Amino acid sequence: KAGVTQTPRYLIKTRGQQVTLSCSPISGHRSVSWYQQTPGQGLQFLFEYFSETQRNKGNFPGRFSGRQFSNSRSEMNVSTLELGDSALYLCASSWAGATNEKLFFGSGTQLSVL
Amino acid sequence: AQKVTQAQTEISVVEKEDVTLDCVYETRDTTYYLFWYKQPPSGELVFLIRRNSFDEQNEISGRYSWNFQKSTSSFNFTITASQVVDSAVYFCALSVSGGYNKLIFGAGTRLAVHP
User: Fold this and answer.
1) Does B91 touch chain A (CB under 8 A)?
2) pLDDT tens string B9-29
3) Which of A4, A23, B5, B61 has its CA 20 to 30 A from that of A66?
């Protein structure tokens, strides 16, 4: 069974640009969540999607957005990039997004903003 | 508000030593779940264990064991006879009801096991 797939693996952008990251969950998983990992702030929850609906959102500015498609694949978008957006962005999937479910993580997209 | 504290930033041990990673959590919810994840250099977090707030039974899985104590709000992780392959960053995390996969992570503990 294929794991969670994130593309691209690495990305370099300049300030002011926008970026779209992609995540394909494990087959059958309908919940996809996104996390940002930085050396300073650690791992922080961005948002969670289930059946194309955002059910929870972390404390991030509106420049961070996401969506989920009918096949459960998800994308997240960051507009007007800032230097502080440089981070490892991790996607995780689970069956239904229940509180007690274990998450399966992808290897992440390393975003560098210059 | 919920919070997870992993006070140990880095731990360095020699192979075959036992090592304990500490985790202290804060929450006012009565129903919650605690997790440990391992992050190897490849980047993906790998699930190790899950515990709910009503089950304080300790668990052992091979060389790994976990000690959950509600009285001290701690969920510590012990690796017995550590191996070089255990080198990674270990995260403790908390989720509460209605969180929809929102995990509150600790800062992580980087474990280096030397031959």
Assistant:
1) yes
2) 999 999 999 999 999 999 999
3) B5
pLDDT tens per residue across span B54-75: 988 888 899 999 999 999 999 9
**Interatomic CA distance for residues B61 and A102, integer angstroms:** 17
Amino acid at A31: S
Tokens representing residue B44 in the block: 């993906």
Distance of CA A8 to the CA centre of its chain: 12
Number of C-beta neighbours around residue B83 at 10 A: 12
B36 near A CB under 8 A: no
Distance CA B63, CA B18 (A): 9
Probe site for chain A from B31, B92, B100 (most A CB atoms < 10 A): B100
Which of A99, A103, A105, A110 to mutate against chain B (most B CBs within 10 Å)?
A: A99
Q: What is the average pLDDT across B94-110?
A: 91
Chain A: nearest CA to B103, how far in angstroms? 7
User: What is the token pair recorded at B77?
Assistant: 């992780």
